[in-house]
C-alpha cells in the first residue's frame, strides 16, 4: 500500500511539471503557427483565455501536446494487467494499473530484450519513460525506457539469474553432491547463536545421536555482513575437523533469507571439503544455498536428522546385524564340520603310505640303478676327456708356428708394394706440378693486360676525375642528383660536391637554359 501511495505522489509531481512545461510550450508556440496553416487558442497561466483566441488544427494541437508530454521523464510503479508481445511486432505493448487508474505502455523490442525482465500479468514493475502521443489515432502511450521488477519481484529475478549461472557452471548438478557419512562423530553447526534454530538442532542431536561432538560457529544470518560471516563460519568448522556442516536458520520473509542467496556463499558451499546440509526457513523456502548444498532439508530440525541416526533405528540395526553375524557363523561352522567329517573318511588320512607308497618304491629302484651304473659312466667320460686333451696339446703348437710364418711373409710383401706405389705417385705428382706452373704463367699474362686497360677506362669515366677537372655534382636534401632546374626552387637547400669537399648552398633562383642564354 505504501508503494502505491509513493507512486501516486511521484505521478502527481510529474503531472504538475508536465503542466508547467505545457504552458511554457504554449507561449513559445506562437511563432510556429504558420507551420500548421491556422491560428490557435491557448489559455493563459491564470486560466483566462486570450481576448481573441484563434483555433488550432488537430495536427497542431497534437504536436503541441506531444512536445509538452515528451519533455517529461517519469519513474512509476504499477501492476502489469495486459501484455501483447506478438511475433513481427517492433514493440511490446502492455498495460500497468493501480487501484484507481491504468496506463497503456509500449517498449521497443531492443530495450525490452536488453532489460532481461519477462513481463507477466500480475507482476509489480518499476518503469522509467515518458508520455507520448500517437497522432494518427490520437492515443497517449507511456514510452518505456527501462523496466525492473519492483520489491520482492526484483530480488527473485536476481536470484533466478544467479541460479541459472551456477547451474550452467554445474554447481547444482546432483552428480557432484556428496552423501552424508554414517554415524558422524563431529558435526559443524553454522547459524545465529540467538535464534531458535540452534536450540532445535542441539535438541535433535542430543535426542537422536548424543555421541556426536558439535562445533558451533555463531554468525549473523541477516544484514549486509551476513554472507561473509556465514562463509567464515563454514571455513572455521571444516578446519576444526567437522565431518559435515549444518547451515541453518529459522523462517522469515524473502528479504530476510537473501544472505543465503549470495554467490560467494554458494561457491564456499560448493568448495567445502566436507558435505554441507542446509535447513533454511520452512518447507516452501528454497535458496541458492539449498540448490548448491549436498543435502537440503526443509527445516533446521530436518537438517539435524539428516546427519544423525535415530537411537531406536540404530539399536534395531545393531540387533539385526548381530543376529545376521550369529546365523552366518553358525552356518559356516556346520558346513566346516560336515566337510571335516567327509575328508576324515578318505583312505589317504587313514593310511599314511597310501598316497606316497608307489613313489617311495620308485625312488628305491632308481637309487639302486644309479649306484650300479654311475662308476662305469664316469670312467668312460674321463678317458674321452684325456684323449681330447692329448690331441689339443699336439695340434696347438703346429698351428701357431704355421700362422706366424704366414704373417711374416705377408708383412714383407706389403712393405715392398707400398714403397713401389709411393715412388710411382711421387714422380707423377712432380710432373703435374711442373705442367701447372708453366700453364699458369701463360693464363695470367693476357688477363693482366686486359685489367690494365679496364682500370684506365674506369678512371676516365669516374665522376671524381670529372670533378677534378673543375666540374661539380649537385644533390638535393634527400641525396638525389640535380639534373634539371625543375627539381629545385628558390630557397631549396642543395649540396655541391667539388674535388676536395662538399659545399652547402641555398638556391636563390632557378631558370631554364634558354633564359640564361638570353641574359
Provide structural commentary.
With 519 residues, this protein is of the alpha/beta class. The protein contains 15 helices and 13 strands. A 5-stranded mixed β-barrel has the order 1-2-3-5-4, surrounded by 4 helices. Strand 4 (124-134) and strand 5 (139-149) form a beta hairpin. Helix 1 packs across helix 3. The longest helix has 105 residues, at 357-461. The radius of gyration is 57 Å and the shape is flat. The two termini are 106 Å apart. The relative contact order is 0.04. Mean pLDDT is 80; it is low at 1-5 and 21-49.
Give, in order, the helices and strands: HHHEEEHEEHEHEHEHEHEHHHHHEEEH
**Widest sheet: strand ordering:** 1-2-3-5-4
Helix and strand composition category: alpha/beta
Distance separating the two termini: 106 Å
- Largest sheet data: 5 strands, mixed, barrel
How large is the radius of gyration? Answer: 57 Å
Helix content: 40-55%
Query: What would the average pLDDT be, to the nearest integer?
Result: 80
The share of residues in extended strands comes to: 15-25%
The number of distinct helices, counting runs of at least 4 residues, comes to: 15
Low-confidence stretches: 1-5, 21-49
Oligomer: single chain
The tally of strands reads 13
Q: What global shape is seen?
A: flat
Would you spell out the secondary-structure blueprint of this structure?
Layout: H1 2-28, H2 33-36, H3 58-69, E1 73-84, E2 91-97, E3 102-108, H4 109-115, E4 124-134, E5 139-149, H5 152-168, E6 186-191, H6 196-208, E7 213-218, H7 226-239, E8 244-249, H8 263-271, E9 276-280, H9 288-292, E10 295-297, H10 300-306, H11 311-344, H12 347-350, H13 357-461, H14 463-468, E11 473-475, E12 493-498, E13 501-506, H15 513-518
Parallel strand pairs: 3-5, 6-7, 6-8, 8-9, 9-10
Antiparallel strand pairs: 1-2, 1-4, 2-3, 4-5, 11-12, 12-13
Helix pairs in contact: 1-3, 6-10, 7-8
